[in-house]
TrEMBL record:
<dbReference type="GO" id="GO:0032259">
    <property type="term" value="P:methylation"/>
</dbReference>
<feature type="domain" description="Methyltransferase">
    <location>
        <begin position="65"/>
        <end position="187"/>
    </location>
</feature>
<keyword id="KW-0808">Transferase</keyword>
<keyword id="KW-0489">Methyltransferase</keyword>
<dbReference type="InterPro" id="IPR029063">
    <property type="entry name" value="SAM-dependent_MTases_sf"/>
</dbReference>
<dbReference type="GO" id="GO:0061542">
    <property type="term" value="F:3-demethylubiquinol 3-O-methyltransferase activity"/>
</dbReference>
<dbReference type="GO" id="GO:0102208">
    <property type="term" value="F:2-polyprenyl-6-hydroxyphenol methylase activity"/>
</dbReference>
<protein>
    <submittedName>
        <fullName>Class I SAM-dependent methyltransferase</fullName>
        <ecNumber>2.1.1.222</ecNumber>
        <ecNumber>2.1.1.64</ecNumber>
    </submittedName>
</protein>
<dbReference type="Pfam" id="PF13847">
    <property type="entry name" value="Methyltransf_31"/>
</dbReference>
<dbReference type="InterPro" id="IPR025714">
    <property type="entry name" value="Methyltranfer_dom"/>
</dbReference>
Amino acid sequence: MNPKSSSKDIFGLALESYYTNKDKTPIKVHNKDFYDDEIPVEYLFRNYEEMPLLEQIAIDLCEGKVLDVGCCAGSHSIELTARGLEVQPIDISPRSIKICNKRGLKEAISLDFFELDNKKFDTILLLMNGIGIAQSIDNLPVFFKKLKDLMHQNSQVLLDSSDLIFLYEDELTEEDNYYGELTYEISYKQSISDAFPWLYLDFDLLKKEASKRGFLCELMYSDEHYGFLAKLQLS
């Protein structure tokens, strides 16, 4: 979660404070329908052994030239680089990219995924609910088209998301919008972002929407918290 609408660079501020001063003030996540949540900033600096199994599996599946989308503090890219892979980390947060550079990721650049052109990758990695950058069901065609633009026939996309159905129990009706379309604000200390849309998908819907756009979609892992890792390839 690192939205373009967060013009105050909330993630970057938190990463900078932690990297420079070991300030553990958490990032707070706000949604009007749920209790506030917190992201421990030190978690964004985790190593491979500290990553959840879903992320470890994704890292192990990466191959060739890797695009790390929403790289944040660069933890995934650092592990992949140590394994000898060529990695292009990108993030819309300028401060986050500066931290990546300081951590040794000299190729990390501040760039919106949807503005990346004229490059092809063997693996496109979108972790920490990477599908969220699509923002809504209606924007999925744009998201899938951009993936295709950055792929060759043998490329793979590794992304995770969560099925949020467990949050609603029996409250949903057919008239409701899709339950994975949410609106958030994030804050750090006295700074708060603008509201922004964020998307969570259940695996069946991801597979259906991907298939419409010429992708094969395979479930690689699911956990007890309704999270899953999927692999997309061109059909």
